[in-house]
Every structure is written in structure tokens, then in C-alpha cells.
Amino acid sequence: MQRPERERAESAARQEAARLTALGVQAVALTWVDNAGITRVKAVPTARLAHAARWGVGMSPVFDVYLTDDSSVTSPHIGGPDGDLRLFPDLDRLTVLAAQRGWAWAPVDRFEQDGRPYAACQRRFARRMAARAAERGLRLRMGFETEWVVAGRAGPGSGGPPPGAGPAYGMARVVELSDYLRDVLDALTAQRVEVLQLHPEYTPGQFEVSVAPADPVGAADLAVLVRETVRAVSLAHGFDALFGPVVAPDTVGNGAHLHLSLLREERDLCRGGDGPCGMTAECAAFLAGVLRELPALLALGAPSPASHLRLRPSHWAGAYACWGPENREAALRFVPGPPEAEDQANAEVKCFDGAANPYLVTGAVIAAGLAGIAAGATLPPPVAGDPALGGGHERLPDSPAAALDRFTRSEVLREALGDPLFGAVAAVRRGEIERYEGATAEELPAATRGRY
Ligand code: GLU
Ligand code: MG
Known about the structure:
The chain is of the alpha+beta class. The chain folds into two domains: 3-118, Roll (Ubiquitin-like (UB roll)), CATH 3.10.20; 128-448, Creatine Kinase, Chain A, domain 2. Helices cover 36% and strands 20% of the residues. The strands form two sheets. Strands 7, 8, 9, 10, 11, 12, 13, 14 and 15 form a nine-stranded mixed β-sheet that branches. Strands 1, 2, 3, 4, 5 and 6 form a six-stranded mixed β-sheet that branches. Strand 11 (258-264) and strand 12 form a beta hairpin. Helix 1 runs antiparallel to helix 2 (49-55) and helix 11 packs across helix 12. The longest helix has 21 residues, at 216-236. The protein is globular, with a radius of gyration of 21 Å. The protein binds glutamic acid and magnesium ion.
């Protein structure tokens, strides 16, 4: 970052800090998400925000090779005790936290100490890919769904039954936890997060909240904010919120599905064309690029060994590398609606889960889609019905090692991520495979469900 830019940020931060102080905010949490999918943080007192905006806050690059259990590995470019980075808060996203009294939050971009952008910054990667789309006159609108299992504090993640155990998608689940769920909505609304829906899911104690789409970096920021808000409200009610891919063996897991639409200026290219399901040829090529790259993308979007306990056929997790309109078993579900917006449609990548770094996901999906456009890729025929029931459809990699193999062979992702980030992601995946090798179907969820 250049000096004038930093000086401007410092003066903006001084004003923001005054506003926060007047609101009783004493601390600002500055977060980023590592390659294992864990949100890491440095906090500063509000009085120090301007200093942070001017000079950044120090943090070691070693966290880029941390695993879910806080052990670390090394990669060709990153690892070991040496070096330091600077975290710079994005003041445009500064949010007063409704469920953590006296706290505010901002996501950060990471830079080298000399002001150069840090090559392995995941948030910058997402921004670079959005800019790459913009160079072609294209824009993405994206949104993550957040699924979680709420558990008693002594509960899964630590043991006892979920507090809401009514039937799947049942009103009983909402009645049982109506104070809690209202507080989730209330906190998100107070933070100016536009909530679209909140509902119970399949597994006992499981809920989902979806929020309005945003630009790719904004959607990833929102994924972090929504999750930490749900966590804070849960803790205030004496619950744990578990975002791991699976909470217990043989249960339906937690997805973090990504919705996306592709636009040229204000026009949604997913609708009003003469391609499949009424999409334009450009949208079809973008989605074909995503579909083609999905086996490799899995190492980013469903990154944990536990992800593969979730990604089972016939569990609405999208275990097959196919697409279909409104098909909840296809890894890529096309959503031709909604009826209330005649000029809009979107696609949903269903195979991704809550262990994913949302910045890596948004950036990598854009890279894959743009590669599809560049190659003039075409979509195969859509799939209707459950692909597990026959038809010879391609299964996505069914183990973390198979997904890592596809990732390491993806030239599209290697080029987009750049060697330092690509190498760190691969090292972390390899590390987690080794770390959890031999873990049983009980041990793996228990070790991971409460970490994200
Ligand atoms: N919980 C399912 C998953 O693992 C998704 C259910 C749904 O389609 O909302 O992704
Ligand atoms: Mg859902």
C-alpha cells in the first residue's frame, strides 16, 4: 500500500473510531481466514484503529500453513518462525457487532512489511479474480448459505443433545428455539445484513440462514460476519454453534453452498438467452468452466477430510459432477427462477461446506468460470433426478487425497492462485490428510465440528 493511501485510511479510521467510541465500542476484531478455513484474528482497542489503518497490525505468515488442530506444516514459500505481515482493516466493512457488546469487526487485507501486497492473501486473491472478470466486462453476484448445528454447551463438539430436536424442517424446531432464532435475526439485522431466509434443516439442531448476494469479496466477508454472529448469539444462549462439515457420523452435514450469477453491466446473463434453461451462451460457458474444474475446486470448497463424510450421494450435498435445473443432488444446481424477478437466475454450487475459506472459494470459482469462457466450454446435458440412481454420472473425488490430486493437477487453479498460495493450500491439505489418517467416522467429526 502506498503512503498517501495509508494516510487517507488513517484519517478515515480516526473518524470511524470517534463514531465507534460514541457507540460504546471499545475493541475492533480484525479477521482473515486461513487455508484450513479457520477465521484468525488480531484485535485492537478502538483508540488504536487509526494506527492500525496507517501502519497495519503485525501477524506471522505461518498461519497460512496452520491446520484445523492448530499444528502447522511447511510449504515451498511459507512456513517456519521467520517473517511478519501487516493486517490492514477494510474500513468500508467496519461493523458494530450486535451480539458482542463493545465490539466491532472488520476484515483485513494482508501486506508485506514494506507495503507490497502479500502474495498469499486470500482476500486479495478473491479481489484479483473479481477484477479479472471486470476486465472482460463481467461482474459476479455471490452469496453463501450458512448451515450450522446448534448444540448444548456440553453437547456435540463436546456431547449432549441438540436443544432443538423436532422434525426436519419442522415448525416445532422454530417454536423450541424461537427466542434464539429471533436473536440471530435481530443481530444480523442490526448489523445491516439483509437476511433472505432462516429455517430448520434436516439434522436435529440444524438451521440455515441465507443473506442477500453481494460482490465476491463482500459475499466472503458476509460469510465470516454471519458465522461469527451466529456463534456469538449461540454462546449468549448457552449453546455451541457447530459449522464443521459433519457433526456426527451418518448424519446430513453442514453445507456452505455458493449462489452466483454472472452479469454484464446490469444484465443477468443467467437469464434471457437461448442457451440451456434460458441462460446466455456466456453464462453457459462460465458454468461449464466451473463444472469442469469442480473435482479440483473440491480441495478448496470441501477441504477437510471430514468434508468427505458429508459429501455422500443422496444427501443433498451434491456428490456428483453434474448440473441440472433445481436438482438438489447435482453439484451444480441451476435456479432458473425466482418468479418475483423476471430478469434474474442463478447457479448454486452445492458441494462446498463450512470448512472452506470463502475468499478462496469465490476467487477460484471465478477463475474456473472465466477459463470456461476463454475455452468456449459448453455444458453437458442437464441431469434430472438423483444421479446416484444410475446413468453413469461422474462422482466427485470421494476422498481428500483424490481431491488433492485433482487440485495439484489443475493448471487453472495454480495459475490463478499463484505459487505461494497454491503451495500453501496443497501443503495444508496434505497435512490434514496425514493428521487425520486412520481417524474413525466418529473421531473425525468430533475433532473438527467445533473448530470452524
Ligand atoms: N445440509 C445439506 C448439505 O450438506 C444441504 C441441504 C440443503 O439443500 O439445503 O449441504
Ligand atoms: Mg440448506
